[in-house]
Design goal:
The structure holds two protein chains of two kinds.
Chain A: H1 9-17, H2 21-43, H3 46-65, H4 75-94, H5 119-137, H6 141-152, H7 157-164, H8 168-188, H9 195-198
Helix pairs in contact in A: 1-2, 2-3, 2-4, 3-4, 5-8, 6-8, 7-8
Chain B: H1 4-14, H2 20-32, H3 34-52, H4 59-75
Classes of the chains: A mainly alpha, B mainly alpha.
Family (chain A): Belongs to the sigma-70 factor family. ECF subfamily.
Domain RNA polymerase sigma-70 region (chain A): 27-96
GO molecular function (chain A): DNA binding; sigma factor activity
Chain lengths: 200, 76
């Protein structure tokens, strides 16, 4: 039986440090997709992203188990920042040019439920999300960075401003342009943008 | 034409970072300004699409992480 379902990240970390492995499992499952996406959008390769995901969480394990975890910030921001740094380091070491990997889409939505959708609408969603990931890569670096930090790493705009050395208004402006540009690119590329497809 | 300051507030609003009093003012403006309401709708739509674009790792990668953590617990 699992009793940790509704616990905060902070509570789960305390339980984990006290030796409860199931608390860590909750923590990993809660944040794995955002951490993985943060990495994937930089390295653009599923296998590399999974390797770096493991490295990021292993770093987190060592930090927490050695009592060096600083509880001041949010866990999600912290783990995504570790992941972001590892992905950037990897990218620099590999000295690869940005490359967009085509996806077969078979595992993209493996933990999401679209059981009520038709096969056709599922395929449209899948294609749209894959194309969206490609379009994110085409954004100017400053816009892409803010978008990833806010949307996937869940950093606040003030945290992003501090981390990138700009004012909060600049961070907000970059996010605004990132979203506007993405929307324009989607429309220009005739990518499905049907509100009915995404309604709850 | 929406002012830049209002557009920035809109971004903070859709990401739940707008202060309560500013939130109330913006919500009132949304009921009176169609252009602003459409901008808000577009931002929310992009948010939803970005949520959907998140990728999930294979379970084997998660199992490796959890097993590594357990192996450290066994050693200590």
């Amino acid at each position: 039986m699992n009793t940790n379902t509704q616990l905060s990240d902070s509570a789960l970390i305390s339980l984990y440090i006290a030796g409860k492995e199931s608390a860590f499992e909750q923590l990993v499952n809660r944040h794995k997709n955002k951490v993985y996406t943060t990495i994937y959008l930089i390295v653009k390769d599923s296998y590399t992203a999974e390797d770096l995901l493991q490295d990021a969480f292993i770093k987190a394990i060592h930090t927490m188990k050695s009592g060096r975890y600083n509880e001041e910030g949010k866990f999600s921001s912290w783990i995504c920042r570790i992941a972001h740094n590892l992905a950037i380091d990897h990218f620099r070491k590999e000295k690869r040019s940005p490359m967009i990997t085509l996806e077969d889409g078979s595992n993209v939505f493996n933990n999401m439920s679209f059981s009520e959708d038709s096969a056709e609408s599922l395929q449209i969603k899948e294609d749209t999300h894959a194309r969206l990931r490609e379009l994110i890569q085409t954004l100017p670096q400053t816009q892409r960075e803010v978008l990833m930090m806010r949307h996937y790493a869940e950093m606040s705009f003030q945290e992003i401003a501090d981390a990138t050395g700009v004012s909060i208004n600049t961070a907000l402006g970059r996010m605004r342009y990132a979203l506007i540009n993405l929307r324009k690119k989607m429309l220009n590329n005739n990518i499905a943008y049907d509100k009915n497809l995404y309604s709850e | 034409m929406i002012k830049t300051s209002t557009q920035n507030e809109l971004i903070q609003y859709v990401y739940n970072e707008l202060a309560d009093d500013a939130c109330e003012q913006l919500e009132l403006a949304l009921t009176q300004d169609l252009e602003l309401a459409e901008s808000c709708s577009d931002l929310l739509m992009m948010q939803q699409l970005l949520d959907g674009a998140a990728k999930a790792p294979h379970q084997r990668a998660i199992d490796n992480i959890l097993n590594y953590s357990k192996s450290l617990s066994l050693q200590s």
